[in-house]
Amino acid sequence: MSRIGNNPLEIPGGVKVEIDGKHIAISGQKGKLEMDLCRQIDITQSDGAVVLERINESIVSRQMHGLSRSLVNNMLIGVSIGFEINMEIIGVGYKVEQKGRGILLSLGHSHQIFFMPPDGVTIEAETLKRKTAAAGTPNQLLTGKIKVSGIDKQVVGQVSAKIRGFRKPDVYKSKGIRYFGERVQVKAGKSAV
Question: Rounded to the nearest 5 degrees, what angle is found at the Cα of 89, between the Cα atoms of 87 and 95?
Fold first, then answer.
């Protein structure tokens, strides 16, 4: 009994859903997404809602029921509202610049990093002229902000993780790229003994 999978999905206003067998295509004001569902899941549309059902009670069918419903829900949200992840750059000398669709990052490496997002994802970068102290990190400077947005939740998350991987938050100095609101537990160095 899947508590998530059994809940019907309300179709938001302005969103068009097309079902052809196991293939679902959803289009809205932000764009269009398509997906092929697992063989063990049936999908139907009735009364302004999308309903997913298992064809049998096998283990794979039960595992895929809630997952398939969540993926279709993310598609409905993506084409109507979209997804957005905000990130912060913290550290003296670290900065980000907008270069067309991409961004140019200076993160203390011997070279600058130019990152171009895939199609369907937009990146907005803001370099802060006036350095501000980052929340929860004493003596650290917030030097830039990055906003990653798009209609596909998985791609937006993957792009954000890739950008964060260029300079992960340092647990000793608390510098690096982090998600907005991410809390980094700062460790004491050797001199703290």
Answer: 125
pLDDT digits 0-9 by tens, 107-123: 989 999 999 999 999 99
> What does CATH list as the number for 83-182?
3.90.930.12
Tell me if 140 sits within 8 A of 178, measured CB to CB. Answer: no
Give the CATH fold of the 9-80 domain. Answer: Outer Surface Protein A; domain 3 (3.90.930)
Residue type for 20, please?
D
Q: What is the DSSP letter of 191?
A: G
Q: Does 151 score more than 90 pLDDT? A: yes
CA–CA gap between residue 5 and residue 145 (Å, rounded):
37
Determine the average pLDDT of the residues in 160-189: 90
